[in-house]
Design brief:
This protein has 184 residues and is α/β, with parallel strands linked by helices. It is 41% helix and 24% strand. Strands 1, 2, 3, 4, 5, 6 and 7 form a 7-stranded mixed β-sheet that branches. Strand 2 and strand 3 form a beta hairpin. Helix 2 runs parallel beside helix 5.
């Protein structure tokens, strides 16, 4: 979108008019263009939770690890595409995040998200029962208050890339819908 400021007519208040016209044009451009600061979100890598051992990992097999990374990346992309959210750089807290079972640590992800100036923290997990993936879940928290804003679990219909992508897309839609309601 282009915004232009018309030159005011010459007269005694030319400078004042120029400042006023510039301020008015800038505010109209920002309002019309929907320009606002994107909310910073920390989306941690998804974890595999083995129901038989109550442990979480970033995938015990290479294909699990790849799918978990791909699921988190797909979720991040869905948030960024809206233009309302920007992803926090998690590289500074990544080693600490790996030391926890983030989806079951009762909000410890908030402390990590706070360190990277995120307003929202999102963790994801995939539940595995007897070597079969069953469900994918997300947990969305307000970093400042620690309040759980949303949580959702969906079944993974088939243990394929398409099955996982469908689960991620469903969770992303639920998350975006809920966050939109929180904005109102």
């Amino acid at each position: 979108m282009r915004c232009a400021v018309a030159e005011p007519k010459q007269g005694g208040h030319t400078l004042l008019m120029r400042v006023f016209a510039s301020a008015l044009a800038l505010s109209l451009c920002l309002a019309a263009g929907g320009v606002s600061a994107a909310e910073r979100v920390a989306v941690f890598d998804f974890e595999m939770v083995d129901a038989n051992s109550d442990t979480a990992s970033l995938g015990s097999r290479p294909e699990e690890a790849e799918r978990l990374k791909a699921a988190a990346a797909r979720f991040r992309e869905a948030l960024v595409r809206t233009g309302k959210y920007e992803m926090a750089d998690l590289s500074a807290v990544e080693p600490s995040a790996r030391a926890f079972n983030l989806s079951a640590c009762n909000g410890c992800d908030g402390a990590l998200a706070r360190k990277v100036d995120a307003a929202i923290s999102i963790t994801g997990s995939v539940q595995k029962v007897q070597d079969v993936t069953r469900a994918m879940a997300i947990f969305v928290r307000d970093v400042e208050t620690g309040k759980l804003l949303a949580s959702k679990s969906v079944d993974i219909r088939e243990d394929t890339d398409a099955g996982w992508n469908g689960a991620v897309d469903s969770l992303a839609q639920t998350c975006l819908h809920h966050l939109a309601l929180e904005d109102n």
